[in-house]
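Note on ligand handling. Small-molecule inputs were canonicalized before submission; formal charges were left as drawn, and no protonation-state enumeration was performed. Where a ligand contained multiple stereocentres, the stereochemistry in the source SMILES was retained. For zinc ion, this procedure yielded the string shown in the input block below.
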Amino acid sequence: MAIYLCHEQPDLYEHDAVVVDARPGAVALDRSAFHPGGGGQVSDVGTIEWAGGSSRITHIEIDGDRWWHVLADDTMLPPGGVSVTVDAEHRLGVASLHTMSHVLNAFVFDEFSGALVTGAQISGDGKGRMDFDLPEVDNDRLRALEGPINDVIGRGVPVTSQYVPVTEATPESGLMRSMSVAPPPTPDGTFRVIDVEGVDRQACGGTHLSNTGQSRPIRITKVENKGRHNRRVRFQFTDPS
Ligand SMILES: [Zn+2]
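Structure output:
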């Protein structure tokens, strides 16, 4: 399952599915529009309904080919059909912060000649952070990227995805950077590449906006030194609600 349903049908938030496996507090389905997270990004959350009950899905656990939809309680689902709903607001918040982390990454990469991401985390509470390998940099220069990031939001830049052959994803192409979220190459040997038009282009399997204008404004709340080489940039929505 290297091509995610949520990538093929990004606007699919509700669908039917069939239980293929169950244990107390978790269920595996024959199909799922949930994004499983990865690379420091939280998974989608949502709800599941079956004949006789419903529960919240708190996250996805991947075990081989099986995606366990972990429930908020210890229910053991019966075999049969279910209906699942992805929490659209949660998806939008995570996709916004993650898409804007591409933009931050691009600005850092350009301004500090190829500085690489060493870690990233996007949580479900409207906050994110990225770590960069930047040994000698004035932290105010990193903070100053907040304005240009919000300019990209204000300009409403289109964000598109395409699958390109692995052979094009060479180190020189700049497509492979360390922020990428699963999945690995598809069985036919392609990578999913995300293009924030004119700003950033790189391989990534995360959830993204289709236009930067869908994001609420972002604030860089803190820049910290993490060890000798790393700077941690924390950001969140300016309006926290
Ligand atoms: Zn991405």
